[in-house]
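SAMPLE LOG
Freezer: B-3
Tube label: C17
Construct: single chain, 241 aa
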Amino acid sequence: MLSGQVAVVTGANQGIGKGIARALAKAGCRLAICARNAAKLTATADELRGEGAEVLALSTDVSKEADVVAFFAAIDKQYGQVDVLVNNAGAFDGGPLDELSLAAWENVIGACLTGTFLCSREAFKRMKPRRSGRILNIGSISAQRPRARGVPYAAAKFGTWGLTQATALDGREFGITCCCLHPGNVFVERRAESGLKSDDEPMMSVETIANAALAMLSMPPDVNFLEAIVMPRDQEYLARG
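STRUCTURE (predicted):
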């Protein structure tokens, strides 16, 4: 169902974003990917092209309106359409609430929530005239059960879930669906040698969460897989809040 479609993935230079981009390419999508780190993004794009994917890659800070507008203009020029958007870009920061800086708050909110809004807005503009399109927002189980000392991230991901529902409502009459995938612990690159206690918890692979994303994006056009929580069986969740 996804073959030939143009799929946009943010934060696609590593981790979950890279895994989803690879899964979409294997499903036959043409890719437009972005991230802030230009060197990693270029390496990822070359890797995906080596696997046979058609890829447009542009270094982009999704928290900046001008960057997002320029990214989608480049997509217009190369592909002329947007069928799928995966809002994956994000950042994490935290600590005791009374010690958090405004800069830390704005970095997380900007990458996770403002970026999701800006990219969704630009995708919506292109999907609406065609009366079709799918938007998948990557949330977190922190949008359901926050961790201690994770105020910016929890706020951003709760906001992402609210934005998902509002976008789904706005898109319904135009054939646009919006859904949200809440991952638990995923063994991404940064966890390998972080030394953090939380990274000793049960983990699932990037491929597992990418397959979940692909399932949500592969529904029939008149079906919205609105929300999913995917997590390791043994991860603390119900009692962690």
